[in-house]
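ARCHIVE CARD
Drawer: 12
Card no.: 0347
Subject: one protein chain, sequence and derived structure
Cross-reference: see card 0346
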Amino acid sequence: MVSKEKIELLRQKIDEADAIVVGGASGMSASSGFVFYYEDDEVYRRLAGDLAKKYNIHNMFDAFYDQRLTAGERWAVILRTTRYIYECETGETYKDLAELLEGKNYYVVTTNQDAQFYRIFPAKHITRIQGDWRYWQCSQPCHDGIYDNHDEVMWLCDTIKNDTLPEKLIPRCPRCGAPMEPWVRSYTFLQGTFYHREMKRYRDFLENNKRGKVLFLELGVGMMTPMFIKEPFMNMTYQFPHAFYATVNPQHALVPKEIARKSLAISDDIAVTLKQLLGKSTAGIKAFNAKEAFNPSRIY
C-alpha cells in the first residue's frame, strides 16, 4: 500500500495541474494481468502452442524475435497474438486511469503496442512511440504506409495448422510483394508519415503547456527503453518552470537528485496506486513480489 502522504500529494498535483502528460509503458498492462509478453503464463502457452516446447521459448517477446522459427511458425505466433489483442478484456488499470483523468487536460504517450489505451482514450490524445500490433507494414519497407489488419488476422488465424501459417498465405506487401511485418519496434520499424504525425501532436501539446503546471505522470516505465519516456520526462521536469514528475513503478521508481524537489517516486503496484487515488478498495489485488517479477533488464 502507498503511504497516505504520497497519495495525497499525487492527488493534489493531479487536481492542480494545468496539463497532465501520461507516460504509459508495459507496467500498465502488467498490472492488469497482461504478462504473456515476458512470462510463461497460460495466455502465452495458448498463443505459442507446441512451439514453446519445441524451441524452449518462455514468452511471446522472445518468440517474436527468435530466428529459429520458420516464417510460417513466426506468423502463427504473430497472428494469434494480434487476435488476442483484439479480443481480450480492457485492463482495470486503464479504466481507473480514465476515471482519474476525466475532465482534465491530458495527453498520453506510450511505448505499449497492445492498443489498450485506445479502448479508453480518444486517439487524438495518444502517441504510440513503438507502434501498434493492429497494423502491418512492408518489411523492406518499400513505401510509407501502414495497414489495418483486423479482417486479415481473423481469417488467417483459422488457417493455422500445426502451429504454422501456410507459406502461401503469409501476408505480402501490395506494392513490392515482400512479406509484411507488424508495425512494432524492430529493425524494420517504419517511422514514416503516420509516426511523425503522432509525434508532432505530442510535441505540440508539450509546447502549448510548458509554461503552466505540467504533471508528468509516469506509469510502469522501466529501464528497457528509458530514452522514450523516462529520460525525456525527467529532462522536461528539469527545464519546465512549474513541472512536477511522478513515477509509479515497483522496481524502477527513480528520481535524479537534480529534480528531487519536483518529483515523487512511488515504488508500488500501479493497480494499487490508482485504486488508492480514486478512494477504491484494493482488496483482491495481488501484492507485488519482486522475486516473481520479469527479468530486471527488461522490466516494463
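Annotation on reverse: The beta strands are 19-24, 106-110, 126-128, 131-138, 146-148, 180-184, 214-219, 244-248, 263-266. The first strand starts at residue 19 and ends at 24.
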